[in-house]
Amino acid sequence: RRIERQARRGVSMASGGGVEGAAAQPPAPGFTEPDQVKRFADAKARGDPRVMDIDSVYDPSWMAGARVLITGANRGIGLALAKEASLRGATVVGACRRSSPELAALANVEIFEGVEVTSMEACERLARELKATGKPPLDVVVNNAGYFPDTHDDFSQGLNFEENLRQYDICAVGPLRVTYALVKAGCVKSPGGKVVNITSQGGSALWRQVQNANEGGDYGHHMGKAAANMCGVLMAEELRPQGIAVANLHPGFNRTEMTQKYAHIWDVEGAVESEVGAKRVMHEIGRVGLLQSGAPFINCEDGLLIPY
């Protein structure tokens, strides 16, 4: 999201003064490129089908007959994921604060309202109500609910600690509350279940020296997403003995209401419609498996790893 300002900064650095930010290092084998503009330009130049045409590699077969819970399923990328899962034959368990006409219109959908991920009581109520249905446990839990306010959050224009804490509570502690409640109640298939945290490349500490070079900012967003990644890594270790796989996924840059403030860089950074982004995410969820150690942090744009 920082590339436009990086470009302006590059001009000012060349004209004198200041310290250059860290150059984007060649990614290690299996790792994606940190520079978003370069990543998309390179993929476009080489005609990478994984990036430019997800349908050419997409495998949605795992969704047929699966039970998939998605938090924040009423709008944005969460709604797009719900639509895609429903289309591919999954039963969608939509967990949200309030439903939407688009979510209610889906086939094979079970909607649970009043799910505020900042409330342990609400998460436990979700688990109880889900358990009371007597239906099979969930194959996949997608912790998608997020929050990214359009507010200043840097030293020059001022920090917003209240919003920082809210982002942290929703994006990092929220997935922990939801997953804990569901696993404790026996609502996740064990063994064989999957827990997927929709986080962000913004949670990569290593990449801040490239994507935020010499400017910092968006402390609540980046710190919250880094904490969400840590949540996923720790859950992977604790849930592995129960046969539940955990992964952290960066959904890619999607054209949603939450990213509207970045509309001016959608094109240069390769932002896609949420329907395309949903296929990218679902493709990677299908590839998630139980590992002997660790939890992968995957860029759903190209399927490659992002360093923590």
Structural features:
308 residues; alpha/beta; seven-stranded parallel sheet; two-stranded parallel sheet; 10 helices; 39% helix; 12% strand; globular; disordered N terminus
Q: Numbering strands along the chain, what is their spatial order in the largest sheet?
A: 3-2-1-4-5-6-9
Low-pLDDT residue intervals, each spanning 5 or more residues: 1-18
The Rg value, from CA coordinates, equals: 19 Å
What is the count of DSSP helices, taking H or I runs of 4+ residues?
10
**Multimeric status of the protein:** single chain
Structural class: alpha/beta
Distance between the termini: 18 Å
Proportion of strand residues: 5-15%
Q: Give the tally of β-strands.
A: 9
Mean pLDDT: 91
**Helix fraction by DSSP (H/I, runs of at least 4):** 25-40%
Main β sheet profile? 7 strands, parallel
General form: globular
Query: Secondary-structure element sequence?
Result: HHHEHEHEHEHEHHEEEHE
Q: What's the topology here?
A:
Layout: H1 3-14, H2 36-46, H3 49-52, E1 67-71, H4 76-87, E2 91-95, H5 101-104, E3 109-112, H6 120-132, E4 140-143, H7 161-184, E5 194-198, H8 208-211, H9 219-239, E6 245-250, E7 254-255, E8 272-273, H10 274-287, E9 297-299
Parallel strand pairs: 1-2, 1-4, 2-3, 4-5, 5-6, 6-9, 7-8
Helix pairs in contact: 4-10, 6-7, 7-9
What does this structure look like?
It is built from 10 helices and 9 strands. By secondary structure, it is α/β, with parallel strands linked by helices. It is 39% helix and 12% strand. 44% of the residues are buried. The strands form 2 sheets. Strands 3-2-1-4-5-6-9 form a 7-stranded parallel sheet, with helices on both faces. Strands 7-8 form a two-stranded parallel ribbon.
